[in-house]
Every structure is written in C-alpha cells, then in structure tokens.
Amino acid sequence: MEKQIPLPLLNALKKQKYHLVGNHSAVKRCKWLNESLTKKRSCYKQKFYGIKSHQCIQMSPSLFCCNQQCLFCWRAQKGDLNIKWDEKSVPMQDPPEKIYEGILKAQASILSGYAGNKNLDWKKFGEASTPKHVALSLTGEPTLYESLGDLIKLLHKKGLTTFLVSNGTIPAKLLDLEEEPSQLYISFCASNEENYKRVCRPQNSGTWKRLIETLSLLPSFNCPTVVRMTLVDGYNMKNIDEYAKIIEKASPTYIEAKAYMHVGFSGLRLSYDRMPSYDKIKQFSAELSEKTGYKIIDDSSASRVILLSKKKKPIRFDKS
What we know:
Blueprint: H1 7-15, E1 18-21, E2 25-28, H2 31-39, H3 44-49, E3 56-60, H4 96-112, H5 122-128, E4 133-136, H6 148-157, E5 161-166, H7 171-175, E6 183-187, H8 193-199, H9 207-217, E7 225-231, H10 240-250, E8 254-259, H11 278-292, E9 295-300, E10 305-309
Helix pairs in contact: 4-6, 9-10, 10-11
C-alpha cells in the first residue's frame, strides 16, 4: 500500500486516529460513539432513524479516493499536505470479506480504550461490542470501490444495517449495486453547475449532469433515500428556487439540511466562520420547506441539522 499511497499521508491519517483496514478502507471513532458511551448523548441518526450511536461503525471503503475535492470535506485532498497521489481510483482492491473482518477488528480496538474510563456506561459498552450498523460515510467516494454492492450484501447478511453516502456522480454504479443499502444518501450541495464547480470541485467532466441523473433516479430505489445538503455560509445557501426544482424531480424520502463543520482537512480550505449557525440552517430549511412541500419533522441543534420529509415520521431501524 505504501507504494501506492504516500507515507506522509498515511502518517497524517494515523495521527488523526484513522484505523486503516487493508489497502484502502478505514474506521474512525465517531464523536457520537464517545458521547454515547461516556456522556449519555447520541447523534442525530439515533434521534431521527433509531441508529444507536454506540453500535455504529463509521467507515470508508475508499479512504484516499474521490472524484471531487469539495471545499467542505474533511478528507485529505491532493495539495492539502503538499503531496500527490491518484485520488480517482482505489488501489489494490480488497475483497468484501477482508474489509468486513477488518472493520470489526478496528472497532474492537477503538472500544478497548474505554475500559478504564470512569464515565463509561457499562451497559452500552457491552452492547457496543456487537455493532448493529455501518455508516459508509467516513471519507472518500464509496462507489469507486468496485465490490461495494457485495460489501453491502455481506454486511446485511451479518445482521448489520447500512447507510451509504455517495456524491451521486456515478449513477451506473448505484443502479448496479448487488444489494441496496438500508438507506441511500446523495450529497446535493449546489443549486446549479457553476456553483457546483466552485463548491464541489469535480475532477472529471460531466459530473454535474451525472449527479442530476442520479437524483432523477432516486424514485426507482426501494430503500429510503436522502438528499443530503452540506451548507456553507457564503457559498451555497442561496438560490432556493433552483434547489427546490431539482428536489421536486428527485422526490427523496427525506432532505437533511446540515451545517458545514470546521473539522479535519477542511480547515485548510475554509475558515471557521463558514459554519452556518443553527438559526441559519433553520431559516434555510423553512424556506426550502415552503418551496418543496417537504415538512420539517425533526432537528438536532447539536449537529445543526434539520430533517424534512413528506412523511409524518421517519422510518426507524431499531425500535428497541
């Protein structure tokens, strides 16, 4: 792997507490795993969808690779560390079984560090040893991993639910998945092609057209679908009419309007004040609701996120 991925990048990721798995995957401790185990707080995915924070693995099957260089992304991008690598293809691809075994081992390693924590909730700690959910959302574009559908199928076979987050620029890959995720997220962070190129910085031509194609295909999926909007103050919080027209055609199950958070390598590209306040996210969501007919059905001020839907209540994946 070190012949493919520069050593300074590997060292930087390890310093940021990424647990590398095989040639191209990784697990990282989510903030909300820690909050759940030690402070009795949980993330918005638990509040909205019943996904227990302490039983969730946050991972990526494409740690180093993406065909976009979004300003707001916490991923290390070519140029961030004055080093170069091929960001657009996943090297030496591992089989799903190796990734599955590796992410369980990495999560167990993360949990082992809690045994001496005086604030530990031991009941949750015991439950955490049996993960119930995998969020394929950590970093990178997962559809660049060729066996993504097989990985999702394996995770489901092992009794895990899955949330897949994609930038939607490879619609053919999403349509050709061996098995759909439990819930599919498509990032939609610009209202027109000009702003898309400014905010999402695609590395290939034709990606805006393919994103729009993916959004138009959402009604064909059997799983719940989410249009995920990462909002950056001063960059992509205007032109709500344009957003609304595209969302109307996409007809997702949900819309999540979420503030950009100043974390990871995004701090090299955006200043702290580009994080919208929770009040700004609420105002944006209210205007989007008015234009689309989607109602605000839940929110999380801690994560600065609003959930909109035409459903009265979201589908919950763990009702216990």
